[in-house]
Amino acid sequence: MRSVRGAATSYAGENPARLVSKYADQPNDVREGVEAAYKSLGKNLTSAAQTILAVPMEVYERSGNEGAAKKVIRAVPIAVLKPMIGATEAVSKTLLGLRNTLDPENLAETEEKYKR
Prior knowledge:
68% of the residues lie in helices and 5% in strands. Helix 1 packs antiparallel against helix 2 and helix 2 packs across helix 3. The chain is elongated. The two termini are 16 Å apart.
């Protein structure tokens, strides 16, 4: 990880807390918006699937059958919310791409405002 003007940046595979505004890296057109939407949705669906599969196995390995139901039920909100978050991000990225296609002047202003 390296620091650029006080903001944390990362290399491939790392995921530090982002200190840069999410508006700084907008899609330039609809194609980029749909591409970003697809990646976001895929990332969140994968996370939900991992939670659904990993939590029961982890609970079983640690405690056998004792109290497993409670721990699995605690993981359900994550498994439900992650796909919803992914869908919301997907719609957001697509609409940002559409807006930037229709109004390129606004894109230029936004890029100036939220410099990377």
